UniProtKB/TrEMBL annotation:
Regions that span the bilayer: 27-47, 91-112, 124-145, 177-199, 220-245, 284-305
Residue ranges of every copy of the ABC transmembrane type-1 domain listed in the record: 87-303
Family note: Belongs to the binding-protein-dependent transport system permease family.
UniProt protein name: Putative ABC transporter permease protein
A single BP term in Gene Ontology: transmembrane transport
Statement: the UniProt record of this protein carries the keyword DNA repair: no
Subcellular location: Cell membrane
Keywords associated with the record: Cell membrane, Membrane, Transmembrane, Transmembrane helix, Transport
GO annotations of cellular component type: plasma membrane
Native source organism of the sequence: Mesorhizobium prunaredense
Main location: membrane
Length: 316
């Protein structure tokens, strides 16, 4: 009696059936694609973050692991005038630079969104300050702000606007304004290009309909452009705030926190105490103290994205 071919075929194993089910599941497939990225984040982000939090509760120094001392580092920082000055400098630096970068970046994005000649060339040129390495930009600004050979002071003297050279980096007030200006110059391209990409997604038919209804240019911006651009603004400004708040290279090259700690940010102070000073526990505690501010910026992005409900016809 002939045996049918179906009868002699081996039954698929449990492992092969499981793999087949996983392959047919879109969620499982997506999870599989996310595993490599999750592993990288775990190794290069989660572990350093956890180690930093642990070091903040120890008296670790370079050369010895240290012991657990609880919140002594944070108690010391709460009474440290230099730490609170760095917090003030960081907030001033972040808020001032972020507001000006947003205003100038949005203005530049609106200009680049017009039908200008050679607009592709101008869009590429705008990116140069962002593409140039931060250290090279800082060295260029260091020369521009030099107390003796400043090209900016020379130009202002030649135009008759001032009668003596400006001490840009030697005076506390001037130093704060100088590093903020340098950060704005570097950050405007990122804001402008990102908002420009958002402007490109707004349908022109909305502008045409509003124009037919008699809307002015300000009304077009206020009631068409701004509401539809809100989600992009939320994301862009969140990244801008994060980049600015954690800025290190620009400050370290230009002033190293001086003069008299006037430009010390939390990031540069953490490096000075933890690496240069050898107090790893104290430096880690300063870095951990930055986390609540960063979480606030992330929450700002989250609530800003809720404006998508408005775009989809739901409640705002």
């Amino acid at each position: 009696m002939a045996v049918s071919s179906a009868a002699v075929q081996p039954r698929p194993s449990i492992l092969s059936r499981s793999l087949s089910l996983l392959a047919d599941s879109r969620n499982a497939l997506g999870f599989g694609f996310m595993l490599p990225a999750a592993a990288l984040l775990l190794v290069f982000l989660t572990y350093p973050l956890g180690l930093g939090i642990w070091l903040g509760f120890t008296d670790a120094r370079i050369g010895r692991p240290g012991i657990f001392i609880g919140i002594e580092n944070y108690q010391y920082l709460s009474e440290d005038a230099v730490f609170w000055l760095s917090v003030f400098n960081t907030l001033l630096y972040t808020i001032s630079a972020s507001i000006l970068k947003f205003a100038l970046g949005l203005w530049l994005a609106l200009i680049l969104n017009q039908n200008l000649p050679f607009k592709s060339f101008f869009r590429a040129i705008v990116l140069l300050p962002w593409v140039v390495p931060t250290v090279l930009s800082a060295i260029a600004f260091w020369w521009i702000y030099d107390s003796q050979f400043s090209i900016l002071s020379w130009a202002l003297i030649e135009m008759g606007l001032i009668d003596h050279r400006i001490n840009f980096l030697g005076d506390p007030v001037n130093a704060r304004a100088s590093v903020i200006a340098a950060n704005i110059w570097r950050g405007i391209p990122f804001v402008a290009i990102t908002l420009l990409a958002g402007l490109q997604t707004i349908p022109q038919s909305l502008y045409e309909a509003a124009t037919l209804d008699g809307a002015s240019r300000w009304q077009l911006f206020r009631f068409v452009t701004l509401p539809l651009l809100t989600p992009i603004i939320a994301i862009t400004m969140t990244f801008s705030v994060l980049f600015t708040f954690t800025d290190f290279q620009l400050i370290y090259v230009l002033t190293r926190g001086g003069p008299v700690n006037a430009t010390h940010l939390m990031a540069t102070l953490s490096f000075q105490r933890g690496i240069s000073g050898g107090q790893l526990g104290e430096g880690a505690a300063i870095a951990v103290a930055m986390i609540p501010f960063l979480l606030a910026a992330i929450l700002f992005s989250y609530f800003g994205l809720q404006r998508r409900k408005w775009q989809q016809g739901g409640g705002d």
